[in-house]
Fold 7TM GPCR serpentine receptor class x (Srx) domain-containing protein.
Amino acid sequence: MVASNFTEEFVWGSELVGRGETTRADTVVGFTITLFSTLSVAVGLLSLYIVYKLPIFHNAFGAFWVSRTVGEIGANFIHVVYSGPVTLLQPKDINPLFGIVSYMVCVYFAEIACSMHQYVSLNRMLAVCAPLKYKTLFTRRITTTIIVVTTVQVTSIMGLYFLFPCNWIGYGPQYYEFIFVKCGENERDWSPLGTFLNRGCTALCVVSLLMDCVTFYKIIKIRVTNKSAAQDEAFRRNVRFFAQTAVQNISMMLALAVIVIVNNERSFGKAVLYATTFDARILTYLNNGLSIILFNPEVRRFLGISKGTYDNRIEDSTTTAATASSQTTQK
């Protein structure tokens, strides 16, 4: 630990090593991190399997969902193999570079998940608000391009850590959170680049919430003005897809709000807040994976959770909606 008494010798990276002995709080926090992140990875893998097996997700929505889920799995996996174990063991002789690498890997995947989530919301908004244009807006080529470009953009942003000095962040087992690595006794105690990423992801989440509001307004309008369309199975499925996206946005926004408040700063007096922030982030990803089961009866039937007949020939909901709307227009 970097002591507050500056007469002691400064040791770079001392924030990222353990205290050498495990307390009861370390055990509780380390266990919850390991448990929640393991569950999140397992549910994420199940979500990928569901999307692969069910034709209703073989569309742009499913592609964006898969990309986001891969990001969430990558972010949580680092907690399974590093953050949880080092919190439980509190090793004092560990190399600080491991903590920095854990942050880089985790945030890289988390930023991909955050970036892709806005396209999930955009996809739902256009499926409900502009079903006739959906197929032309989300072709296979356009969807693939969005995913590739987004991944390249996130990779480029993460590369900024290697260009600007004194911005490194790493996992500090004594703090239960990703902590700024101080460069010297008189240097700042926060990372400008880390702050930019935290607030940037929060801004994307706000944009997603605004798109959800537009989608929700359109859904209410259709229910009020067009009773027959509101009863259409394709429309109802679109509503369910929207619901699972909106719930995720709310939980993610709450987690990001706390992350922005903490902002990777170091303070032992905030241990409870740090642990809550870390677990909230993991639980948000767990909620994302579970939502695909909660809001889709086709998924529950496929998993044997509820009764019903599963039909492998179920059509893409958005394609069905677009076709129905097209036929109505032609008439």
Summary: Residues 18 and 91 are 5 Å apart (CA to CA).
